[in-house]
Specification:
Blueprint: E1 3-5, E2 8-10, H1 20-27, E3 46-49, E4 52-55, E5 68-70, H2 72-75, H3 83-90, H4 100-115, H5 134-140, H6 151-165
Parallel strand pairs: 1-5
Antiparallel strand pairs: 1-2, 3-4, 3-5
């Protein structure tokens, strides 16, 4: 089998102990996904597996064999930026940029979760559409840390995209 990474098939590693993070960076040459804490505590290594956010430092590459992985490099389409990438730039949702790939991948999955009605700790009414608020975004993005303090810009960027996607 193969792991589909950003639309291209990549052979799974021969060493079953290889993390998805190491496969992406060292095996596939996709260095946009960052090594942060390497313990699953910071979210810098967040990627999408079949549209769901995962911490690639805690995921073995063999676990995603036959599945589709999307990294920051694969989010945009047609050579253009993903709306979240553009919003992070426009809203100053980054300073050093180290956490930004993980933040953007997590935000993309988070917006899909909200659209699908997946509740969070803050969801008050499980039968109603989930309103996208600053507090809801903060709760859902709490696993992605920014050491520079760009959190307000990050929330602004996500909120802007959420409002653009709402009919």
């Amino acid at each position: 089998m193969a792991i589909r990474i950003n639309g291209s098939d990549v052979a799974p590693p021969t060493d079953p102990r290889t993390s998805l993070l190491d496969l992406l960076r060292d095996g596939a040459g996709l260095t946009g996904t960052k090594v942060g804490c390497n313990q699953g505590a910071c979210g810098a290594c967040t990627v999408l597996v079949d549209g769901t956010r995962v911490l690639s430092c805690l995921t073995l590459a063999v676990q995603v064999d036959g599945r589709s992985v999307t990294t920051i490099e694969g989010l945009g389409s047609g050579g253009g930026l993903h709306p979240l990438q553009r919003a992070f730039i426009d809203c100053d949702g980054l300073q050093c940029g180290y956490c930004t790939p993980g933040q953007i991948c997590a935000a993309a999955a988070m917006l899909e979760e909200i659209a699908a009605g997946v509740p969070s700790y803050l969801t008050a009414d499980l039968s109603a559409p989930i309103p996208v608020s600053r507090d809801e975004i903060r709760e859902r993005m709490s696993g992605n840390l920014c050491r520079c303090g760009a959190h307000n810009g990050i929330v602004d960027a996500i909120l802007r995209v959420a409002r653009e996607q709402t009919p």
